[in-house]
Task: structure prediction
Amino acid sequence: MKYVKFFFFFLLVGFLLSGGLYANDTIKIGLLVPLTGPAAADGFSAHSSVKLALERVNSTGGLLGKKVELIAYDDRADGKEAVALARKLIEQDKVVAVVGGSYSTPSRAVAPIFQEEKIPFVAAYAVHPDITKAGDYCFRNGFLGTVEGKSAAYVAVKMLKAKRIALLVSDNDFGRTLAEGFKYYMNKYAKGIATIVSEQAYPFQEKDFKAYLTKIKQENPDLIFASGYYFQTGPIVKQAREMGINAHILGEEGADSPKLLEIAGPSAEGFVIVTNLNRDDKRKEVQQFLKTYEERFKIQPDMVGASAYDAFMIICDSIKRAKSTKGPDIRNAIANIKNYDALTGQIKSFVKGEVVKDVQVQIVKNGRFRYLGVVTDPELITP
Result:
């Protein structure tokens, strides 16, 4: 009898030391963001916005009677770093789902890991197709790169009436995927209407674009599709205007940042982007987010932050509907989302992990992004 008592005593001690009754006192959701390095501004926006979403969820009682705990790590937009942190989130932190608040390279690297471990993963804004191809536990709340590229071409040809188009794209996963979508639209829908007269790719770390722009200027385009992140597109826009290039300049969500406005200065006026955040959306929740973010962080909100906010809320909403924190249950709830009102527009559904929603078109006016139009054609916005 004495040995039996000792056995149960040590069993109880082990149970308590391993977390015991307190192991599940919160619901843990992971977040991978680039808080340092060249993408730090995007990481700050994503992290800050998710914290606002966390406050909202916990202020209304949390989920399933428990508070939600955010476990956030800096992946520095680096694939190797992200892989190590993904393992930590799974094995040490025991998260039930993860928001991918980072770029395509790290998101591609971690997606197969979360898939293998059956941890739902929602990429907030990374565009590469391989992220969702990793499997049915991987979702994308932002646009697939080819969807965004096709929509950008539609805006160039149909809305901005471009006839001669120059492509200047970042030579990485992000830029190549967008260019693929852009050229797909041109080949299928714009033959005889518009032509690509120049196509150049620049290294990720490029800062001086004058040589590229000189070649573009010689081709006399009426529109430049300048694909890249804010720290790339900002200098492109500024240098193009300084060189006397008056063509429309069209970007995409990578340029959707207040940092671009800071870098390009007055040259940003008239710059157009395809993105997923409409600053002039009249819905109360959207305007409240925009106001709260700017008041709290003293900087204009952007697509990155709104997309990360939405990714977190999609996970929370799915946990609530599933009434479960088990991976398969959360995954099924996300996959079955229909007409969900997100900050970045109504999510009609997910198709093989890819979001279906309208593409927003914004233009810089008086130093702020404003509504210019929207792309709703199902052939373009459906992956």
User: Anything to note?
Assistant: The chain has two domains: 23-143+282-347, 146-275+362-381. The first strand starts at residue 26 and ends at 33. The chain has 14 helices and 16 strands.
